[in-house]
């Protein structure tokens, strides 16, 4: 299976790749549908996405990129399961941008964020990919929860994969990010190091127009 995955990756290597990660039921596959128009399985079940689901999309100005969905994470995911889902998780390490989808309507989204990052810490190279917190279900989230998540001093954007709110701003964000990352390096033929994940205050911020209007 590994050689086949490498062939598929080589076939799309010229395009920037966006990897979608998140706790189970955060809305990753629904977001993939919104961003790409793909008819991907959307199911309220653990590990509804078992293999990498890669789709092609384009930025508003017409630049193509690929989007990879991954398995939904859970707290204390056993290491043997991390190994079993290696084909899914390795897509993250090869991405140019990581969209960490968070269920902003959950009572404790911070614990889910920590659980996802704990799993990713076992994926070599994942810590080198820029991460953006996509606060999904913002249309039904408590305002206090959204304010708390905004205050984390890291890149965030609020969306609703169900209603489409905030998706235009997300597409604009995607349009800005990969061109400055490894995807641009591939196209110009140069070899540049991947930028470390941004830990401090973001250099940009979602214009923070309230996506709900």
Automatic annotation (TrEMBL):
<protein>
    <recommendedName>
        <fullName>Hflx-type G domain-containing protein</fullName>
    </recommendedName>
</protein>
<feature type="domain" description="Hflx-type G">
    <location>
        <begin position="16"/>
        <end position="182"/>
    </location>
</feature>
<dbReference type="InterPro" id="IPR027417">
    <property type="entry name" value="P-loop_NTPase"/>
</dbReference>
<dbReference type="InterPro" id="IPR016496">
    <property type="entry name" value="GTPase_HflX"/>
</dbReference>
<keyword id="KW-0547">Nucleotide-binding</keyword>
<feature type="region of interest" description="Disordered">
    <location>
        <begin position="178"/>
        <end position="213"/>
    </location>
</feature>
<keyword id="KW-0342">GTP-binding</keyword>
<dbReference type="InterPro" id="IPR005225">
    <property type="entry name" value="Small_GTP-bd"/>
</dbReference>
<dbReference type="Pfam" id="PF01926">
    <property type="entry name" value="MMR_HSR1"/>
</dbReference>
<dbReference type="InterPro" id="IPR006073">
    <property type="entry name" value="GTP-bd"/>
</dbReference>
<dbReference type="InterPro" id="IPR030394">
    <property type="entry name" value="G_HFLX_dom"/>
</dbReference>
